[in-house]
Amino acid sequence: MNSRKKKRIIKYVLLISLAIIWVIPIFTLFATAVKSKSDFYSGISLFELPESFAWSNFVNALTEGRILHYMKNDLLVSCIKVPLGIFVEALAAYAITRLNIKHRTAIFAFFLIGMMIPMQIALVPINIVFNSLHLTNTFSGLTYVYIGFGISFGILVLRGFFMEIPREIDEAARIDGANKWRLFISIILPMAKPAVATLMITDFLATWNEYLLATIIITDNQYKTVPVGLMTFVGEHGMDYGYLCAGVCVSIIPVLIVYLVFQRHFVEGMAGAVKA
Amino acid sequence: MVKKRKIDWGAYAFLLPALIIYLSVIIFPVCYSIYISLHNGTGIGKMDFVGLENYVQMFSDSIFLTALKNNILWIVLTVVLTTSISLLLAVALNNKFRGRTFFRAFFYFPCVVAPIAVALIWRWIYNPNIGFINEFLKMIGINYTQTWISGENSAFFTVLIASLWQGIGQPMILFLAGLQTVPADILEAASIDGAGSFTRFFKITVPLMKETFIMVIATLIISSMKVFDVVKGLTNGGPNNATQMLSTYMYSQTFSYNNVGYGTAIAVFMVLMMLVIVIPYIAFTAREK
Asked: For residue A18, what is the nearest residue in chain B, using CA coordinates?
């Protein structure tokens, strides 16, 4: 009994010390963000409280630093990309798992290839084609490419889930006179709600956070999403430490909110979705 | 009367939207990139056909070789460190105890932050003037300052640590799910037979979690192969190419120096490297269960 208790204490000590290391980056970011320019001139230490908290850093970053504008853009792109992408992926996953098509395994494997294609290979072709089609600096262009890069993972997750739904349901629906489309919309898709929910959240975050494709497709400040905008913001204010940190700080607030609200989905749903 | 099995075109229609988007966004660019990589030029106007010259050039380009070496080292270290730390955490967080949910959520949190923001956050840990490490050392009375990010020896590891901070959570969750699939009665039986906790872990738990291991390691290889954001945000490949990766080198060759043919050849090389590593994994995932 005694050794068990000792083990538990060791475990707590290890976990808590690791957690402290884990929190350092966030602490540093916040402690720098609340300091004003004059604090840095007077050589204040990171661990000292500032003369007065420079909350205006946060407001300025949102407005003058255009972070709020970047958030609006990002939200728009994500809110179109996620449902549309999942719908397209679900259609394909439904065909692969439940409809009468040949070579379903080969088709699925073909879709999986996309998971290991590094985005880098698409940069130049997309750049060339988008320039000639005038799709650079458009949300529709960016959204289309995002849907393309999401297809592999989406089909992987949804196929896994659709396979778990018993075949008898299809039979029953067919006898009741439902066609393929009805079966999909009214029965299979609603039954896959847990998988769709998890996919929505992960997809939202992946879209919200994407940087590489966005730098190629979006160059105009007016259309930038948060990650690209953040790099612009940093480039514009290289020496204003407090202001910079405040900008980074506010940029992670939306994902923090999404995370706190849907936390259960992350820790339980994610594992389930990927495992299937 | 025997009905001839007709092809059900309606079924294929369901595949169509995904197929069109997938072909245009993934497959077409791959083919187009292979074509471009056989040419020299800026991407605007005429490209000169040079055959495999860009690929030959790669292996006499010392910066490319540095990037390749860094990238391989990056993959190996990421896989080894992430797998071991996240497995350890998963085991520690598997049993019920007070605060378990908190710790799980806590260690997972960095995963949801944009990698580019992670890089920007870690800049303030490493900042030589006001950063956490140097300030902390000063506070506890150690007079040692380092430039961290801009030091040629330290830069690689500064980026690696930032990336680990973000990357632990996801595999931890997967391992936690994997641990759930190990039947408790087998472990109990082994325990009765006198197997210690180490023997049980390595002889029973680990082999039963084979699928989880394969998945974690494969996804880690894929993601670390194409690492970009965190490097771009912290060091941009510098100092003196100490953190240059294939992706950052490809990016700068293509978009900063306008060597579109050469940059694309590097991207094609990345795909080939990936294929060699990952094809066994795809075969494993796609097989009919």
From this structure: B107
